[in-house]
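ingest -> fold -> write
write: protein_1
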Amino acid sequence: MCHSREGGNPGIKFTVLGIKQETKMKRKLFLPILIVFFTTSFMSLVGCNNQKSTKEQSTKSIKEVYELQEKCGKRCEEWVKKDYNGRNCSYKNHYNNKLNKCFILVSCNDGVPHELLFDVNENNNLGGLSDFKKGSVFCSIMCKECKSKSEWDLLVKPYMEE
């Protein structure tokens, strides 16, 4: 039979030490668990009180996007009249909801066919394509160069579609 120096049953001493260690560990974990619980509870309550139903959000969003598209179309029409009046040009405008910007793609054919992409709100030329005779093409958008009309179309696509 084994005895500890203090006397008594050694199994009881081991159990008491295990309970003390387990209690210390529970105390260490209690505060972080409590913080996580209250934080998530608070966030879910605040989030629920401030959110509108998805139907209300989508109706409002559709209306706002429509109004922005209308404004973009009017701005582009005025812009073309001012800058390209009397030239052999056509244009396509687009309000890009993701970028929250109004873009215009102007296509002209006065000698050398070319296209230009502008941010209408900032009156900023983003890039252009010149289609020279003999199939030679030069184009770039935002410092990205391309070598063909199909590459140009791919670079323009994110601005003019969404």
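write: protein_2
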Amino acid sequence: MFGGGRWAHIIFGVLCDSLDPNDCVLWHTRHGMEAADALLSQVPPKANVAAYLVAEIDEIWRARPRAAIVATAPATHVEVAMAALRQNVPVLVEKPIALSLRDADELLALSEDMDVPLGVNLEYSHAAYLHELSKRVPPKCIADIRITWIDSLVERRPDAVKQADLMTHRCLDIYPHLWSILRNLTGKAECTVDEVTPCDTAPDALLLTGRTPDTPFSAELSRRGGKRVRAVDITTNSGAEFRLDFSQEPGQLSIDGAAVPFDCKWEHSPRPLAAALLSFLRVAQEGKMKADWPLDARRCRPHLVGALAAAEKAGVAESAWIAARLRVSDLNLAARLVDNLVPELAARGFAEIARECAGNPATVDALAAAAIAKLVPAAAKADLRLEAALQDSPFLAAVYSSYIP
């Protein structure tokens, strides 16, 4: 397993519960060795499943692993997954599989050439409650789908603190989940994002509208909302309204506003992440791609096509939105600047500055000031290092081109 962030820790715990006795996990992380070591000492894995931290990747390949899970930062997904494929090791990569279609297609081509399984960890493809909803409302009965996906910037849980990954554009972060839900409900992988619009329900909220081959959809997404909201609303051709609120899994189903019994066998079924990992381990054991595997990277390529299209349309819409509202004191303005500029800085090689801006409120303020100093004479004096990093920003170029004093 590769990766040392919060999600890698969650995968590790679920993975250990999914493995067979006497299996072994080799865990490598570039930046999180201390935290991973603390986890191993505090939460021992399932009996008979050994786990070891490995400092050098070559040590892992010498051990001849039978599967690899890549849960590193998205910018390194392709590099790590390619290394595994070249060792003939089946790979499951966290979403998004890559940050560009070119990189994703190179990874897919290598998987094909090596004849080694490659999957994308889109765990909602295995959510029992979504499968049950699709039985209640078959695709041919659906007139319209509306999805709400709202997170808090920081969510404190009993066992951990979940913080939004501002280094990854929120469309690349959230859209893969939306795509998984739409594929579950419509049975179609093709999905087109037609429009992305900033909305005022949260400082960073976006409204996506689009369509599958047969069904229009809309989705509101945010990583700066007041509380976690996960919901799917479906209007049927007959006018009935179905709502599945799965903010707390497995959720509550209502029809025309009235709650109804909803048995998705949650207590007796693997949770979505566990089911996804188990499906990967079965494929890895066989060593061959399965045409009906929902996580097959070839079948999941549209999750990246749509995420990149949504991110591009969001950039166009938000640059115009920001240009029309340039005021340092506008908190929504600062949020949208940061949410677009931090992932762009990371992608352009300014990873250290991006990390600072993602996790330090003072640096966030400085980033916003640097972004608008060029346009607003009253803006705070810009940090010279930030100003240099932002010099050739495509997003700011779009803002500047739309700005009317």
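write: annotation protein_2
The chain is about 45% helix and 20% strand.
The chain has three domains: 6-121+273-295, 124-269, 324-402.
pipeline exit 0
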